[in-house]
């Protein structure tokens, strides 16, 4: 991502576009200076006690080091973990749920699924709303949208009084069949607002108007649970940016890989719960397209977790049902699988003497022992230091110096308990981390029905390059591609992301030529809704409208999403839609029934407003063998070997070298195992190929 321009370029009239992503340990910055195309990057340690303070620190450092001018910022896109951390830590709002009388157990019953069906010790998570805060309101709407019993407003008034007395901060209203007719929810919401103006209220149909009461209710609950913290955080963010002189309206990355403005983020909080992980995949997709890579497995390792996603045809994959902590998210999102293994994951020995890694993390404070910030327990990062892969240069743009003595002390305590040498214990920590990632990636590949040997691994995040090549080798993958600045790919994702709004309508109809007018009408209504949404975001140019339907064979319990072409709705026949459903069903399940009757459940539309067109400079490759900066001892699993250390800044397009080797740079360290050939391409990506 490097270019060449004087540091005072911004002061000569050029504008800046800035992508920012806050993780558990670092906040990442990716700033584009428009005149030259130069990209500046930075990482700053987070401040858990004051979320957002690190943003001001980063802006000041960018101005000092790179000539960044806050007053000429024309695009500011921000990804944050405030929402998801609120759920994981269970520090959200105290809520009440108003639902139909007789259906008060909807969130406890859920779908009667256990998180891990093969575990004898598995338990279902406690709901985010306790049973005493769920109130049944006499009211009933039929599935066809006709009302049989209007809401009992006296019961609503009593429930509001009890909820307030019990300390409720907000109320969620979720009634049966509100996807068909939201009038009852709207009338009850209006009554609550009148009776208790100090409480916030969300109705399920306004958050996500989808069939199935549990999915609709749980999505609205997640939105309300994080609302106060997200809203206050975004208000403080707007004030801080204003005080810093940033004129650009802040935009937020969304779970679906797009962006929205901060004003909407305060209301539609549920849309940004997976913003950080989605941004990483969007950034990786953009880099993959630039490099001409068609099939990518992404590996994003931060301080707390490792996230995996598939990029096929240069595009991220989307789905629903992603887990937010212990709860499924039912709105469209970039499909990401996560596991609690990151650079800060703590290694421990359990009561049976078994070495374990994660999911507990040291975070940014106190952090791994080697950071010298008070951490005393061994982490994956400490194990990398003990083995010799890490600790040969400053980290995080000069903000961290690795203390190898502290790392040896922390890992040594575990080694003493296990009765093994320190290096072997460190290697065991790394092996466990890689094996846990291996299991999660195999699940992902099986669900998607892909052969990972046909994919290239793209590691990013601060820890991705440290372990990525070892994971790729275990998976039998042939190639690894590390971008020039892997540590800030998530911030880059926000920089290049499109505006993207998702809209849904349940129509529940057999698929036939007779049903096409209703389908067309639903899509036309969604298309107008999408255009209005883009206009509210400040986008008035041409929009891309993507259509799809959730469909199933009549008699099936669940549906699959099928992508549609607009002309299929215009030609007056349903044959093309039927064939698309059969093909999709065959692809997913290796089975289809040409004679089976098809049912259409939901129509979906994604309205996309193109983000900024960016391109990074390319350089012709010159075949040259890279010269190492020095050589150093590394424990490679069996013995200590002397390996080459390369400075990423000195590796030019066409540079080649062999593993084992270590590549150091400002935002991460790349550990390269034996049996690999490394080459730098014209985009400054570092490509690894494994010997057969």
From TrEMBL:
Q: Which residues form the Acetophenone carboxylase-like C-terminal domain?
A: 518-683
Please list the residue ranges annotated as the Hydantoinase A/oxoprolinase domain. Answer: 216-500
Q: Where is the Hydantoinase/oxoprolinase N-terminal domain?
A: 18-194
Q: What is this protein called?
A: Hydantoinase/oxoprolinase family protein
């Amino acid at each position: 991502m490097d270019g060449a321009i004087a540091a005072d370029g911004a002061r000569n009239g050029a504008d800046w576009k800035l992508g920012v992503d806050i993780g558990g340990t670092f906040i990442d910055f990716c700033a584009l200076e428009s005149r030259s195309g130069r990209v500046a990057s930075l990482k700053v340690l987070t401040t858990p006690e004051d979320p957002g303070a690190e943003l001001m620190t980063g802006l000041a450092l960018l101005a000092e080091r790179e000539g960044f001018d806050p007053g000429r910022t024309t695009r500011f896109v921000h990804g944050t973990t405030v929402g998801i951390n609120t759920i994981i830590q269970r520090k959200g709002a105290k809520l009440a749920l108003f639902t139909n009388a007789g259906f008060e157990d909807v969130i406890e019953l859920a779908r009667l699924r256990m998180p891990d069906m093969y575990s004898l010790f598995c338990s279902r998570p406690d709901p985010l709303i306790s049973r005493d805060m769920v109130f049944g309101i006499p009211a009933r709407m039929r599935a066809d949208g006709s009302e049989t019993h209007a809401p009992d407003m006296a019961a609503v008034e009593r429930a509001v009084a009890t909820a307030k007395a019990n300390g409720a901060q907000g109320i969620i209203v979720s009634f049966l069949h509100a996807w068909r007719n939201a009038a009852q929810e709207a009338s009850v919401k209006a009554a609550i607002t009148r009776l208790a103006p100090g409480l916030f209220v969300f109705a399920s149909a306004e958050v996500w108007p989808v069939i199935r009461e549990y999915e609709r209710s749980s999505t609205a609950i997640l939105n309300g649970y994080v609302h106060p913290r997200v809203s206050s955080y975004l208000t403080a963010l707007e004030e801080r940016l204003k005080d810093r002189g940033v004129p650009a309206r802040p935009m937020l990355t969304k779970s679906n890989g797009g962006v929205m403005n901060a004003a909407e983020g305060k209301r539609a909080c549920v849309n940004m719960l997976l913003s950080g992980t989605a941004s990483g995949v969007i950034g990786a997709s953009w880099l993959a397209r630039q490099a001409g890579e068609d099939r990518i497995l992404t590996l994003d390792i931060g301080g707390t977790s490792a996230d995996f996603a598939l990029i096929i045809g240069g595009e991220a994959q989307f789905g629903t049902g992603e887990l937010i902590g212990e709860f499924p998210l039912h709105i469209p999102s970039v499909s990401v699988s996560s596991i609690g293994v990151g650079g800060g994951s703590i290694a421990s020995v359990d009561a049976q003497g078994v070495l374990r890694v994660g999911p507990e993390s040291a975070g940014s404070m106190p952090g791994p022992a080697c950071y010298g910030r008070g951490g005393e327990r061994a982490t994956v990062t400490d194990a990398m230091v003990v083995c010799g892969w890490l600790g040969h240069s400053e980290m995080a743009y000069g903000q961290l110096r690795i203390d190898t003595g502290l790392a040896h002390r922390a890992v040594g305590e575990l080694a003493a308990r296990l009765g093994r040498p320190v290096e072997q214990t460190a290697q065991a920590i790394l092996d466990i981390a890689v094996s846990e990632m291996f299991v999660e990636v195999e699940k992902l590949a099986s669900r998607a029905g892909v052969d990972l040997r046909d994919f290239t691994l793209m590691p990013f995040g601060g820890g991705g390059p440290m372990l990525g090549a070892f994971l790729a080798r275990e998976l039998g993958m042939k190639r690894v591609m590390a971008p020039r600045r892997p540590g800030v790919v998530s911030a880059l994702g926000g920089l290049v992301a499109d505006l993207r709004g998702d809209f849904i309508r349940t129509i529940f109809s057999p698929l036939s030529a007779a049903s096409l007018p209703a389908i067309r009408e639903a899509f036309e209504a969604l298309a107008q809704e999408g255009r209005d949404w883009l206009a509210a975001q400040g986008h008035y140019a041409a929009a891309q409208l993507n259509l799809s339907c959730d469909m199933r064979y009549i008699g099936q319990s669940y549906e699959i999403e099928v992508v549609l072409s607009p002309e299929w709705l215009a030609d007056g026949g349903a044959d093309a839609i039927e064939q698309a459903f059969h093909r999709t069903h065959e692809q997913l399940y290796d089975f289809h029934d040409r004679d089976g009757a098809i049912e259409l459940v939901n129509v979906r539309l994604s309205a996309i407003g193109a983000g900024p067109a960016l391109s990074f400079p390319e350089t012709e490759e010159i075949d040259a063998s890279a010269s190492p900066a020095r050589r150093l001892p590394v424990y490679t699993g069996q013995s200590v070997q002397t390996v080459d250390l390369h400075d990423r800044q000195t590796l030019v397009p066409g540079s080649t070298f062999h593993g084992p080797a270590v590549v150091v740079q400002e935002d991460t360290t790349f550990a390269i195992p034996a049996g690999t050939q490394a080459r730098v391409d014209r985009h400054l990506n570092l490509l690894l190929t494994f010997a057969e």
